[in-house]
C-alpha cells in the first residue's frame, strides 16, 4: 500500500503467468466476451485499491485531528503526543522495505489484504483505552456548582481552617489516478470526521450532558476522540475483503505480449512460464531475490541524484509533518478557535488546496512535456516560493490573552516576569488558593484569572455555565470603567483584531499549501526517471521508508518538545505529576512552530538546489558522451562507405553511360 499505486496496477494487470495445465488459446482478434473477465477483475482491483487508499488516508488524517483531544483526555504534554503520532509510522520500519522488494513477486492482492486487516485492528485498538478508563474529569469551580445559593469562592484564612490539600480534595470533578485522488479525499474526510467528533463530549452516551458545565470552546473540553477510530478501523477491515478473492495476476492482453517495449515488470520480474505453484521453484526465486537485495541497495545509494533527492525530500517532509501535526493546536492556541473549527477549516480548505496543487503539477508536466531538468526546476521553484509565502505568517499572530500573574500583572500592566509565586498578590493573600488549579474566570475588566479564588471573589450566584462571581478584590484593582468587580466562568476572548488575523492566516495558508504541493508530481517524476527501470519498485520502497522513519516518526516528537517550552501554565494530575499545558505564550509558540518549519524548509531548498546542479552536470556529461559517440559512428560510417565505393570501382568497368549520375 505504501508503494506507488500506479505500479500496483501495472504489475497486477501485466503479469501473464498461468498455472500449469491450463491451455492457452491465441486468437488474433479476441472477442469482447474474452476480454470481459480481465477487465472486470481489473476494475474490481482498482476500486478495492482506491478504497484502501481512502481508508488509510482517513485514519491518518483523523489521527492528526485528535492530537489536542488526546493530550487533554490523558493529561499529557505535547512531546508525548508527538511520540504517539510518530508511532503510527513505526510499523513501516520493519516491513516496508521487504514488502516493496518481495511484494511485486508474490501474491500482491493478498499482501494488500493482510495489510488492511492489520491496519484495521490497530486502528480499533487505539480507541480501546476509552472503554477501560474512568470518565473524564475536568477542573471546575466548587463542589456545589449545581447550587443556586450564594457561596464564597475565596476561603478566607481567618474564617476557614481547611488546609490547601484538603480543599483541593474537596473539589468535585465530572467526568492515482483515481487512486491518488481518493488518497487525497481521505484526509479531507478524516479532518471533517475529527471536527464532528470534537463537538461531541468525550463521554457521550455515558453521562448526562445537562450536567456538563463546559463548552467546546473551553480549553478543558475533550471531544469524542475515540468514535472516529472505531469508524476508521471498521472501514479498513471492510477494505480488506475484496483482495482475498482476487487472483495473483491477470492475463495480459495478447496484442501487448509481443511488444518490444521494456516495462519495469519485464525487467525486474522473471516472466517465464514456470510453474509458480512449485515450492522448490518459489524457494529458489526467493533466495535469488535475497542475494540481489544488497547490490540493489548499493546501486540506489550510489546514484547521486537519487540520494540527494531522498535527503531533500526527507528534510522537507520533516517540516511538513511537524507543521501539519500541530496545526490544529496552533490555530486553537494562537487564534482562540475551538478544536472542532480548527479541524473543519483544515479539512475543508487546506487539504483541497493541496489536492489541487498536486493535480496542477501533473497537468503542467503533461501539457508542456517537461524534461527531467525541468521537473527539478519546478520542484525547486515551488519550494522556494512556498516557503517565502510561509514567512508572512510570522506577522499574522495574536497577542497573548491577558491572564493575571502570567501575561500581565494583577494591576493590568505588561510585561510580567513569571515565577512560582506570580499567581499570588496582595489582593488574594488572605485567600487559601491553590496555584496548581486551572479554573479560569473572566473578569469584568477583560483580564482572565487562573481561578475565582485567585481573583479574590467573595461570593457567587448561579450554577454551572451561568455562574457569576461577585466582589472580586483583584478585579477591582484593575477595574473597568464601569467599576464592576465581578466575573464569569471561562476565559476572556482574544482581542478584537484576532478574528481578522485568523482570516488572513487562512488565506496565506491555503496559497502556501497549494504552492508547496505544486512540486509534488514533478518531484515524483524526477524520482522515477533518475533510476534504472528495474529498480523503480525498490527505490520507491526505500523512499517511502526514509520519509516515514526519518520524518514521520521524529518530527512530531521534537516539534512537541519545542512547543512545550512555550507553556506558561501547566496542569497537574491527581497524583501530583505534571499534566498537559493549560496556557501557552502565544508569541513563543508562534516563533517555535513557524521558525522550526522555516529552518527545515530552507535546508531542503539547499538540498534541492544540489539535486538540480547534479542533474545538470550528469545530463551535460551524458550529452557530450552521446555526441562524441555519434561523431565516431558518423566517421566510421563514412570510411565504410568510401571503402565500399573503392571496391565497387575496382570490380566494375572504368566507364559506362550514366556512371556519374548513378554514383
UniProtKB/TrEMBL annotation:
It is a multi-pass membrane protein. GO terms for biological process: monoatomic ion transport; sodium-independent organic anion transport. Residues 421-476 form the Kazal-like domain. GO terms for molecular function: bile acid transmembrane transporter activity; sodium-independent organic anion transmembrane transporter activity. The keyword Membrane applies. It is found in: Cell membrane. One of its GO terms (cellular component) is basolateral plasma membrane. Keywords: Cell membrane, Disulfide bond, Glycoprotein, Ion transport, Lipid transport, Membrane, Transmembrane, Transmembrane helix, Transport. InterPro entries: Kazal_dom, Kazal_dom_sf, MFS_trans_sf, OATP. It catalyses: L-thyroxine(out) = L-thyroxine(in); 3,3',5'-triiodo-L-thyronine(out) = 3,3',5'-triiodo-L-thyronine(in); L-thyroxine sulfate(out) = L-thyroxine sulfate(in). The keyword Glycoprotein applies. The chain crosses the membrane at residues 80-99, 111-132, 177-202, 222-246, 306-324, 344-364, 376-396, 501-528, 540-563, 592-615. NCBIfam families: oat. Belongs to the organo anion transporter (TC 2.A.60) family. This is Solute carrier organic anion transporter family member. It comes from Balaenoptera musculus (Blue whale). The lineage of its organism: Eukaryota, Metazoa, Chordata, Craniata, Vertebrata.
Amino acid at each position: 500500500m505504501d508503494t506507488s499505486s500506479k505500479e500496483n496496477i501495472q504489475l497486477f494487470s501485466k503479469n501473464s503467468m498461468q498455472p500449469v495445465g491450463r491451455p492457452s488459446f491465441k486468437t488474433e482478434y479476441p472477442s469482447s466476451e474474452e476480454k470481459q473477465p480481465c477487465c472486470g477483475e481489473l476494475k474490481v482491483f482498482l476500486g478495492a485499491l482506491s478504497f484502501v487508499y481512502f481508508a488509510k488516508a482517513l485514519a491518518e488524517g483523523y489521527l492528526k485531528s485528535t492530537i489536542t483531544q488526546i493530550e487533554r483526555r490523558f493529561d499529557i504534554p505535547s512531546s508525548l503526543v508527538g511520540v504517539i503520532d510518530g508511532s503510527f509510522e513505526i510499523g513501516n520500519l520493519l516491513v516496508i522495505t521487504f514488502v516493496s522488494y518481495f511484494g511485486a513477486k508474490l501474491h500482491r492482492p493478498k499482501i494488500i489484504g493482510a495489510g488492511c486487516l492489520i491496519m484495521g485492528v490497530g486502528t480499533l485498538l487505539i480507541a480501546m483505552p476509552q472503554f477501560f478508563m474512568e470518565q473524564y474529569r475536568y477542573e471546575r469551580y466548587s463542589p456545589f456548582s449545581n447550587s443556586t445559593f450564594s457561596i464564597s469562592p475565596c476561603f478566607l484564612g481567618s474564617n476557614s481552617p481547611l488546609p490547601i490539600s484538603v480543599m483541593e480534595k474537596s473539589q468535585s470533578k465530572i467526568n492515482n489516478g483515481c487512486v491518488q485522488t481518493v488518497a487525497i479525499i481521505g484526509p479531507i474526510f478524516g479532518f471533517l470526521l475529527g471536527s464532528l467528533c470534537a463537538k461531541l463530549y468525550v463521554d457521550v452516551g455515558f453521562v448526562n450532558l445537562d450536567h456538563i458545565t463546559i463548552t467546546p470552546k473551553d480549553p478543558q473540553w475533550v471531544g469524542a476522540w475515540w468514535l472516529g477510530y472505531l469508524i476508521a478501523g471498521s472501514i479498513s477491515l471492510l477494505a480488506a475483503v475484496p483482495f482475498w478473492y482476487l487472483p495473483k495476476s491477470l492475463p495480459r492482453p495478447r496484442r501487448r505480449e509481443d511488444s518490444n517495449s521494456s516495462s519495469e515488470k519485464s525487467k525486474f520480474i522473471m516472466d517465464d512460464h514456470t510453474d509458480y505453484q512449485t515450492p522448490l521453484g518459489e524457494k529458489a526465486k526467493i533466495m535469488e531475490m535475497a542475494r540481489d537485495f544488497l547490490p540493489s541497495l548499493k546501486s540506489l545509494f550510489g546514484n547521486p541524484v537519487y540520494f540527494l533527492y531522498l535527503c531533500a525530500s526527507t528534510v522537507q517532509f520533516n517540516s511538513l509533518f511537524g507543521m501539519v501535526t500541530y496545526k490544529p493546536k496552533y490555530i486553537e492556541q494562537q487564534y482562540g478557535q475551538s478544536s472542532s473549527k480548527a479541524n473543519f477549516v483544515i479539512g475543508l480548505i487546506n487539504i483541497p488546496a493541496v489536492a489541487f496543487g498536486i493535480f496542477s503539477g501533473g497537468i503542467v508536466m503533461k501539457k508542456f512535456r517537461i524534461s527531467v531538468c525541468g521537473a527539478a526546476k519546478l520542484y525547486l521553484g515551488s519550494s522556494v516560493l512556498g516557503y517565502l509565502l510561509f514567512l508572512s505568517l510570522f506577522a499574522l499572530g495574536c497577542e497573548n490573552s491577558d491572564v493575571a500573574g502570567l501575561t500581565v500583572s494583577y494591576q493590568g500592566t505588561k510585561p510580567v516576569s513569571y515565577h512560582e509565586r506570580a499567581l499570588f498578590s496582595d489582593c488574594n493573600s488572605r485567600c487559601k488558593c491553590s496555584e496548581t488549579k486551572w479554573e479560569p474566570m473572566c473578569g469584568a475588566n477583560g483580564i482572565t484569572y487562573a481561578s475565582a479564588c485567585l481573583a479574590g471573589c467573595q461570593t457567587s450566584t448561579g450554577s454551572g455555565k451561568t455562574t457569576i462571581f461577585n466582589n472580586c478584590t483583584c478585579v477591582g484593582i484593575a477595574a473597568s470603567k464601569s467599576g464592576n468587580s465581578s466575573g464569569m466562568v471561562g476565559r476572556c476572548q482574544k482581542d478584537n483584531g484576532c478574528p481578522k488575523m485568523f482570516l488572513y492566516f487562512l488565506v496565506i495558508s491555503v496559497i502556501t499549501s497549494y504552492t508547496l504541493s505544486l512540486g509534488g508530481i514533478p518531484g515524483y517524476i524526477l524520482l522515477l526517471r533518475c533510476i534504472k527501470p528495474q529498480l523503480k519498485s525498490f527505490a520507491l520502497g526505500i523512499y517511502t521508508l526514509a520519509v516515514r522513519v526519518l520524518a514521520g516518526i521524529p518530527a512530531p516528537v521534537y516539534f512537541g518538545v519545542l512547543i512545550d517550552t512555550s507553556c506558561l501554565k501547566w496542569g497537574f494530575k491527581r497524583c501530583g505529576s505534571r499534566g498537559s499545558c493549560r496556557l501557552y505564550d502565544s508569541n513563543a509558540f508562534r516563533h517555535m512552530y513557524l521558525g522550526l518549519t522555516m529552518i527545515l524548509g530552507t535546508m531542503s531548498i539547499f538540498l534541492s538546489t544540489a539535486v538540480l546542479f547534479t542533474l545538470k552536470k550528469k545530463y551535460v556529461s551524458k550529452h557530450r558522451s552521446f555526441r562524441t559517440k555519434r561523431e565516431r559512428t558518423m566517421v566510421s560510417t563514412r570510411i565504410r562507405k568510401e571503402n565500399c565505393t573503392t571496391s565497387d570501382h575496382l570490380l566494375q568497368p572504368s566507364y559506362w553511360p550514366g556512371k556519374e549520375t548513378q554514383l
